[in-house]
Amino acid sequence: MLLGVLELEDVSVSEAMVPRNELEGVDLNDDWDDIMQQITTSRHGRLVAYRDHLDQVEGMLHIRDIVLLMRDNTFDRTALRQALRPCIFVPESTPLRKQLLQFRRAKARSGLVVDEYGDIQGLITLQDILTHIVGDIGDENTPDEPPEIVEQQKNLYTVEGGIPLRQLNRELGLKLPLDGPNTLSGLIIETLGNFPEAGTELDFPGCRVRVLDFADGIVGSAEITCQPEESGEDD
């Protein structure tokens, strides 16, 4: 927790956000039945509302704002538009400490992360920042998910491709570079200069990484073999 607090100034929102490809939202141009299906089956309390594609965002839908309307059968397209809240936009380079203070001042809990061109890159929430400090708290209504790091045997781990490099460095004692991509998947792709195949191996300082599966432009999982530095002995 102390390390997480100390990193708040060095870590940007782009390293802690939910990336764009994992965002869940509501397309206001969809059929009403599809919209209702999306809202009623979502596990999230907030959904991005947009038209056709995410860059045409119109607001944030808070599920709690429409619960009574849905119960009274007065929820329709007009009510949906009226329930939307304005979006807060956050530059992707904003440090987590600064964003935490901004959330407090604005009494907000989420913001859309944008790059220098104004394109949406992901969603940062207050919970994401707290998770960086204390780890994944979880939710009693969220089904258990497999851990991001699984120890197979001594110095051998299976990890998710989307795991942040900072987390890998902290938990496995590695020294993976932090001046480029934020995730292991991004680091593998950037290092190769191309998309990997299952079985592709790469050497990094202190470890060897083997890709286990790759699909849709993302490394799904990988195997990391840590190679502890051997301490030499004087002759």
UniProtKB/TrEMBL annotation:
Any one GO cellular component localisation term in the record: plasma membrane
Localization annotation: Cell membrane
InterPro entries linked: CBS_dom, CBS_dom_sf, FAD-bd_PCMH-like_sf, FAD-bd_PCMH_sub2, Ion_transp-like_CBS, Transptr-assoc_dom
Domain CBS: 83-140
Entry keyword Transport: no
GO molecular function: flavin adenine dinucleotide binding
Primary localization class, coarse: membrane
Protein name: CBS domain protein
